[in-house]
Amino acid sequence: MTESTGIPNKNVLSRKVSVEVSCDLQTAYDFISSSDDLSLWLKKSGPIPGATHCEIINGPYDHVGAKRKVFFESGDSAEEELLNVDAPASYNYSIKHFSNFLEKLSGAAYGQLWFDKIDGRTRITWIYSFHYKNLFKRAILSLFLTFVYKKFMKESLINAKRCIESE
After folding, report:
1. Is 26 strand, coil or helix?
2. Predicted model pTM
3. Per the CB 3.0–4.6 Å rule, which of 60, 97, 98, 130 could disulfide with 79?
């Protein structure tokens, strides 16, 4: 596990997507990290259901140790816990207690979001990592991440860009 992020560096598969948005760092950070705005940009893509709402378990959701439960259109849910916060530059979180098929493949997932300036715009970079349970499950997760989840991530950031730039 890396000390700076709280995210394991062994037995994980990761995918990364980025988008550039016309806004300042704080605006992008506030929108992406908001529990209230999550359903505006984390929308259904292929077989991945969109988020409907969040329930704060230990909050507000702005400091290390804060927890929220994210509910999806399918009725499934997952619990997120902030592992590291460096607003408005980045935050990292763990995802556990999946109520969907992912619980069979992975005991935990990890999200990392970075916000930086590039050519006068804010770049949002999202890395999502799944901790796999064994090599067979690693193979299934690799296919899922490559062909399904990475598309969901990219479309989600494009949705976020639309929302942020329309404000």
Report:
1. helix
2. 0.92
3. 97
